[in-house]
Amino acid sequence: MGKDKKVFKIIKQIIKWIWLAIEFLFLIVFIYLQAPLKILILIAIFISESIFLPLRYRKWFWAGVGVIVLVLVLWVFAPEKEGDWKPFTFDKELAALEAKNKIPDEENAAIIYNQLLADYNKNTFEPNCLDDEFIDCKTSKTYWRSKDYPEVAKWINNNKETINKLMQASKFEKCKFEATSKTLFLFDMERLGAFRQWAILLLRASNNDIAEGRTDQGLKKVYCTLQMGKHICQQSFLVEMLTGISIKSLAVRNFENFVITGNMNKKQLGTIEEFIGEVRYDWQSDLSRVLDYEKLLFKNMLSLFYEVNAKEQYRFTRNPENMINFFLPPEFKIPPQNYLQKKRAKAYGIIGWFFAPATPREFSKTIDAAYQKFYETADPNFDWRREPQDVKFSWLSFKLNYKYFIEMSSFILEPAYYKIHDLYLRSCSEKEGALLLIALKRYKDKNGFWPENLGEIEGLTKEENFIDPANGQSFVYKLTNNNFILYSKGKNGIDNGGQPYSYHRDKENDDINIWPLKRCQKESPKETYKEPNDTQRD
């Protein structure tokens, strides 16, 4: 019997030391993972109990643990009033941003755009007559007459009121759509879709005007498209900035096509030069403004896990459906949770207390620090040759805290800003290339043939237009049979023969084509615009 007691005592001691070793292992692992201090203190308490607490007091310790667990269980299942709790959002910060960027209504093109958006119907801008890919391409990229595509002409005529309002909006230099806590999450993608459709509508109408002799009207519509792109670039988010750059590029390409294939007078050529010269790509101010909103969007995404009441008291969200429904339109709202789902959400709040800060304003400072490297990219002296950090998940680098999540999210976003800057450089190159095309056209009109090299058009345009913004070098110009090619060597500064970047070809290519433009598939390479006779002119 004594031997059995001795064996039991030894086993008990072994189990005690194994348990103690497990506790120490947990402590070491959580220290390595940089777990929150609350977790480390909890583990340290259990280790201290195993080492320092006398045996006669341990049952009271575990009784206390049991009481705490019981109290937490009772708290989870206890009935409670809903109160005035709502999802927390950084409304004060958003209000400050909106006040900073506010535009008076009498100067704001968004007032007119909002009137158009109120009546916008996507189906109106996707007529059956444009289902044919060739007709779609032909009318949007080349000049066409109403007699050749009567259904498209009728469609444009039915949208004259929209065109007139867009032309009215183009007279404004500034545009600012209101940003709210809801639009920070669900910014109006339909609005961006409408702008893209309006841009194509304007360019189709312009191509028709020019083909039928209404040249000045056609050029004004292209300028309207250019202004519309500028207006979108003045908005709050990266996706809007990218959409605006894309629409401006469409307008510049349309001007390029008219410069080379059209037969315009000197005044019209000067007008186009003036329009293109007005194009601005201000990376520093545009990016800084957009980052303010994008950073606030990230903060609001994490703040969704919190609720706040009228007394500005915070708690972890206990009604996830309210968190989601706060941002969804009424027709998409999800039904309330059942009893067990609500209790489970309340229990998650206990876990959240250990791992997340007590209020959303605490992690706000961490996000500010993480976004600082993005603000540095707005500096004109930022070194873009430095590649962004290559982010690869590894358990060795994994950290068990909210700061790690924020930092990793920012590292994942970093390459996107490099890509956006590449697009910015591309757009700047396209603008300078378009101004070179105007100088080339002037030379051709004067001499009857294209120049041998770009040196022969010096004096016909500003010196800075010869410098490619993408690489600081010159553009590549080569004569072909009765024509020419003009392109940028891209960011890498290597002449790839005008071959752009492609997933399907050599990915080292990054040239930016200026001229010739891409044609519709069924279009003959020799097909060019013919000026209407005098009876067809305005």
Quick gist of this model?
The protein has 538 residues and is mostly helical. It is built from 19 helices and six strands. Helix content is 57%, strand content 4%.
Structure description:
The protein is mostly helical and 538 residues long. Among the domains are: 76 residues; 290 residues, no CATH class. 57% of the residues lie in helices and 4% in strands. A three-stranded antiparallel beta sheet has the order 1-2-3. It has a three-stranded antiparallel beta sheet with strand order 4-5-6, with helices on one face. Strand 4 and strand 5 form a beta hairpin. Helix 13 packs antiparallel against helix 19. The protein is elongated. The C terminus is likely disordered.
Average pLDDT value? 87
Binned strand content: under 5%
Helical content band: 55-70%
> Biggest β-sheet: count, sense, barrel?
3 strands, antiparallel
Structural class: mainly alpha
Query: What shape does the CA trace take?
Result: elongated
Order of helices and strands: HHHEHHHHHHHHHHHEEHHHHHEEE
The total beta strand count reads: 6
Number of helices: 19
User: Regions with pLDDT < 50 over 5+ consecutive residues?
Assistant: 524-538
Q: Largest sheet, order of strands side by side?
A: 1-2-3
Radius of gyration over all CA atoms, rounded = 32 Å
- How far is the first residue's CA from the last residue's CA? 118 Å
Secondary-structure blueprint:
Layout: H1 2-32, H2 37-51, H3 55-77, E1 86-87, H4 91-100, H5 110-118, H6 133-141, H7 150-158, H8 160-169, H9 181-185, H10 189-211, H11 215-233, H12 238-261, H13 266-277, H14 283-303, E2 306-308, E3 314-316, H15 320-325, H16 339-355, H17 360-370, H18 372-376, H19 402-447, E4 476-480, E5 483-488, E6 512-515
Antiparallel strand pairs: 1-2, 2-3, 4-5, 5-6
Helix pairs in contact: 1-2, 3-16, 5-8, 8-11, 10-11, 10-12, 11-12, 12-19, 13-19, 14-17, 17-19
